[in-house]
Amino acid sequence: MYNSSLMKTGVALVIGLCISAPLAIPQETAALDGFTAESSRAERAWEAKFRAIPDPALMRAYMERLSARPHHVGSAYDRNNAEWLLAKLREWGLDAQIESFDVLFPTPKERLIEMVAPHRFVARIEEPTVPGDPTSAQHDEQLPTYNAYSIDGDVTGPLVYVNHGVPDDYETLERQGVSVKGAIVIARYGGSWRGVKPKVAAEHGAIGCLIYSDPRDDGFAPGLPFPAGAFRPKNGVQRGSVLDMPVYPGDPLTPGVGATPDAKRLPISEAVTLTKIPVMPISYADAQPLLEALEGRTVPAAWRGGLPITYRFGPGPAKVHLKLKFNWDQKPLYDVIARIPGALYPDEWILRGNHHDAWVNGAEDPVSGTISVMEEARAMAALLHEGWKPKRTIVFCVWDGEEPGLLGSTEWVETHADELARKAAVYINSDSNGRGYLGMEGSHSLEHFINGVARDIDDPESGVTVWKRAQAERIAGDDRAASPADRAEARKGRDLRIGALGSGSDFSAFLDHVGVASLNLGFGGEDDGGIYHSIYDDFYWYTHFSDTRFVYGRALAQTAGTAVMRLAGADLLPFEFHNLADTVHRYVDEVKKLASDKREQTVERNQQIDDGVFAALEDPQLTTVLPAKETVPPFLNFAPLENGLAALERAAHDFDHAASHAAADGGAALAHAQLKDVNDRLTLVERTFLSGAGLPNRPWFQHQIYAPGLYTGYGVKTLPAVREAIEQKQWKLADEQVVRVGKVLEDAAAAIAAAAKALKTATE
Question: What's phi and psi for 629, nearest 5 deg?
């Protein structure tokens, strides 16, 4: 059985072994990637001054102020917060402004969930005040529990339990002979993003969807419920958007263009990202009577939650009436944007962002990240007064409307798309922040760079760097998905692998739509809780159960701020393509194996059907209706993908060679080189992964290496056009996409090779 204290002991032991190991040559003696020896010394001196400035006491004060009242999109305190953020940035001497957009943001007008058979039960659908937690009592200002962008509906039908409500669960239902056609489904949170659940339910004929938080995942099973502990109480509800963001995020009425006052808007009836059926979130207190009333077969063990009931499929005899009606209003967004002009390359931008809107008070999500961005801005403003001058322009972005559907960042990116295509080098995002280990995700051309930054940041509790602590957690932590090879790589590899970006936060428009290399950073892992998107995500909860001393808020400011300064100050932008090529190689191997596995599974399934036919012939008592056999998938020709990968690997090697030559002798060749053309070429490499036609059936998503999955939502699909075609058994489409993505890899290789040639010429 898993024991958190044993895991922490294991991590501590690994850290101890790391500390006792022979020390390497100090980092400070080596030039930073992209810097000369001289510029590296100056950079390190400024970074040291920067990292001394972020103040946990100020962060605590910022959080108390920003989370004092509910501040969802369109609320008075949302605008008040934006104006306060703007005033602080200007007070520190930064050039700051608010950019506003008008977006569709529905709010509840009428909500009813009742069981009408076999007996009547009316769901509470509200979260009660918790004694001792003052902001939980602000009911007049709180958004009610609901799922944004559910359609209106008034439906009654039998109830069916569908586990997480993902495609695999419906295959299980089909095998059990359970149909959801004409039914209302009840799904538990987890397994996929919430917006996938009503989407898949509608595809299978359901007329309504309920989503509840099961205590096995998000309640008393993992820990004590709030306020005694950090986890979701029985009447706690997870609000959230069910906008079909894997099709496109942002304002549903202005896809691809900024939601400015003069933008052409779709009629609501034509907004394809709204749900097809009404959907509503509920607590596990409200879910229990509904689930108890189900009959039918007992569900598989993996489907069973933590409620003291027997979990059954249904349908019925429970019959549920769901009635929802919304105000379909446009609301204003307030993005707060501040700039520090670049002294040498003002038209090369390093962007840093976090959002400020919340579902309710939002101390953890998002204020814990917002306060770090603010301290980064304050610290850099202080350095400006001391004479620091970044080479590139730094743009701080505090977004509005992230929670309903990445609204503020998407509308800003769509509005400034042409300018970003010319100027944006890197975007660094954060969202929530907590206590524990540094999480790093992003473009793999930045993998080596962010590992280098993490090696220079001290962990506030362990006495080692945040990189070393993250390494120890990967070696000895509780990631059951990690293989022995993964743990060995974490122990011996040059860099820790960073995750690929899917969706779910404000990096999406930058990476997926306009091809800006991006990172997402944040600490966590030792502050688990169950107050996500509830009224209990507030200052009281955060200061009792998360980063109570705000030292990891400071660590995030130090990490992300150092990354911003280093990118803004480098002579040569520190992109590196060896890790990128290695990662893409993994992705190519994965899709090849996926195709092979699909073929083998189909052959095995068809054989099982044949065996079932023979069994039925031998035993006339068997009445099972056997499914139809499937056509065995063809062998796909992966040569175009392999050729593109080979070209990418050659180009990465060429650039590594050119960069090593430029870094020789303390980067002497960089000192007098004209690098503007090289840096421009490096910035544009990420753009070469875009395809103007986008992904199949979702053209807004143009990146061919990373995208959120059509049926995973937040979860990433790598090489998405190829991978999803194989998963959905669309073999002709898979063949076409292999060719298309292979060409994208060749284009990226050509861009990297051109950057290598330009760097070699500039430093000869």
Answer: -70, 150
